[in-house]
Design brief:
2 copies of one chain form a homodimer. Helices cover 64% and strands 0% of the residues of chain A. Chain A contains 11 helices and no strands. Chain A has 2 domains: 19-73, Arc Repressor Mutant, subunit A (Orthogonal Bundle); 78-214, Tetracycline Repressor, domain 2, CATH 1.10.357. The radius of gyration of chain A is 22 Å and the shape is flat. The longest helix of chain A is centred in the C-terminal third of the chain and has 23 residues, at 140-162. Chain A binds a DNA duplex (19 and 19 nucleotides) through helix 3.
Chain lengths: 222, 222
DNA sequence: ACCTGAACACCGTTCAAGT
DNA sequence: ACCTGAACACCGTTCAAGT
C-alpha cells in the first residue's frame, strides 16, 4: 500500500521498515486471511524480511496483536452521531460498534478472543459515556449503563462473528437444533430454530430494551 | 479417578484405555490448567500413554475439544427450575447458565472461543424454550426470545470469564479507563469506571429487562 | 483391536553475528 | 540502528510397525 517500504535514504537501512508499517501489514493480513494466518514467518515473508526483524520492531506475537487492535481502534472513524434524544444517540453508537465489527470481522473476533474488546471500542464507549452524561446518568450509574449496553452488543457480536468465520466447527445453532425433539416444545418452535434469526431486527429490539432500562426518557438533553 | 485405567482383562490391551476416559481426563486437565495447557503430548503423559493413542481413540485436537464440551454439557446437572411465573423461571435458567459457566470457567471460555456455546448450553436452552411455550411464546417468536436472552447472558460471560483467566493481557477495562481524560465526561463517571461493576446486580437488571421484553406478563402458566 | 516409535512440517522465540 | 542465519524447544499429525 504505502511506498515507504522501498525507501532507502542512504542510511544503514537495508529495507527501510518501521514499526507502523509492520503493524499495518499485520492488520491487512489478518483482515484478508484471518488471525490464524498471521504467523511471524508469514508476516515476515509478506514484508520481504526475516522473522527476527519483526521482533526487533514490535516485539513478540502478543505485542504485535495488541498493536494491531490499537491501530484499528484509531482507524475506526468516529462517525457522526445522530438522534433527537440521548436514547436515540446511544442506540446510534451501539449500531456503529455493531457495524464496525462486521466490517472488520477478523480483527474484531481476534480482539474478542484476546479479551481486548474495550481496547478496540474505547472511542465509541467514550462517545456513549458523553451521551449518558447529557442524560443526567453519571458516576457508577453511567458505568453500569455502559457495561450493560456494551455487554449486550458483545453478545450479538459473538453470534454474528462466528457463522461464516470458522467454518470448521459444525456446532452452529441451526444445525444443532435440527436434531432435537422434545414433547414439551411445539413443532413450530423447533422448526423455527432451524432457521437463523433476523439478527438486525433482534439487535434493535434487544439493545433498545437495555438502553431504555438505563437511560431515562428525557425529551431534550441538558 | 476411575480405576478402569489399570484394568487389563487379559485381552490384547496394554493400558485398558477407552474413549470416555480420554475425554474425561482432557476435561479435568483443562479445568485445572486452562485450555492452552491441553496439548496432545501433555494429555498423553497424563494418561501414561503415547500421543498417537489419543488419535486412535478420539481423533485430532478439534474432535477432542468438541467431545470435551459435549461431556460437560451432559454433566451440567439440570438443576430444579424455581419461580412462580414464566418470567421468573426463564430468569432462573439464565442464572443457571451464568452459574455453571463460572463453575467451569476454562471449558466455558474454550467453548466460547470455538463458537460452540450452543453445544455446551443446549440442555438449558431447551429448558428455556419449554418456559416460553408455557407462556404462549412459540415459533419464530420463541426462537428470537431464546436468542436474545442467550445473547445477553453470553455478553456477561465474555466479561466475567476474561478477568482472572488470562492474566497476560492488561487490556482490562478498569486499567484502560484510568488513563482517559475527557472534558465532556464528569470526573465522577471517569472515577467510577476505574472500579469494576457489580456484575451480579447488573446481570439481574439487564437480563430481566430483556426477558420482560419478550415474555408477556401472564400471572399463571397455561 | 489397541498401542508404540520415529518422522514430518510447522510454530514462537532467542542470540550471536553482520553492516 | 537495523537486519540476517542458525538454532532451540515446542506443537499437531501421520504412518508403518508391533502385539
Amino acid at each position: 500500500m504505502s511506498t515507504t517500504a522501498t525507501r532507502n535514504e542512504g542510511t544503514g537501512r537495508r529495507v527501510g521498515l518501521d514499526r507502523d508499517e509492520v503493524i499495518q501489514r499485520a492488520l491487512d493480513l489478518i483482515e484478508r486471511d484471518g488471525s490464524e494466518a498471521l504467523t511471524m514467518r508469514a508476516l515476515a515473508t509478506e514484508l520481504g524480511v526475516t522473522t527476527t526483524t519483526i521482533y526487533w520492531h514490535v516485539g513478540g506475537r502478543e505485542e504485535l496483536l495488541t498493536a494491531v487492535i490499537e491501530l484499528l481502534s484509531r482507524q475506526q472513524a468516529e462517525a457522526e452521531i445522530v438522534g433527537d434524544d440521548p436514547r436515540e444517540r446511544v442506540f446510534c453508537i451501539a449500531r456503529q460498534i455493531w457495524t464496525n465489527a462486521q466490517a472488520h470481522r477478523n480483527v474484531t473476533s481476534l480482539a474478542h478472543r484476546m479479551g481486548a474488546t474495550t481496547l478496540l471500542e474505547m472511542p465509541m464507549e467514550l462517545a456513549m459515556l458523553r451521551e449518558f452524561e447529557s442524560a443526567g446518568v453519571r458516576g457508577a450509574k453511567a458505568r453500569d449503563a455502559l457495561q450493560a449496553v456494551i455487554l449486550c452488543v458483545a453478545g450479538f457480536l459473538v453470534v454474528a462473528l462466528r457463522s461464516p468465520a470458522s467454518g470448521s466447527l459444525d456446532a452452529h445453532s441451526t444445525e444443532l437444533w435440527s436434531t432435537v425433539e422434545d414433547d414439551r416444545v411445539s413443532a413450530a418452535t423447533l422448526k423455527a430454530l432451524t432457521r437463523p434469526s433476523d439478527l438486525e431486527a433482534l439487535f434493535n429490539t434487544t439493545v433498545t430494551a437495555v438502553i431504555n432500562q438505563f437511560v431515562p426518557d428525557s425529551g431534550t438533553a441538558a
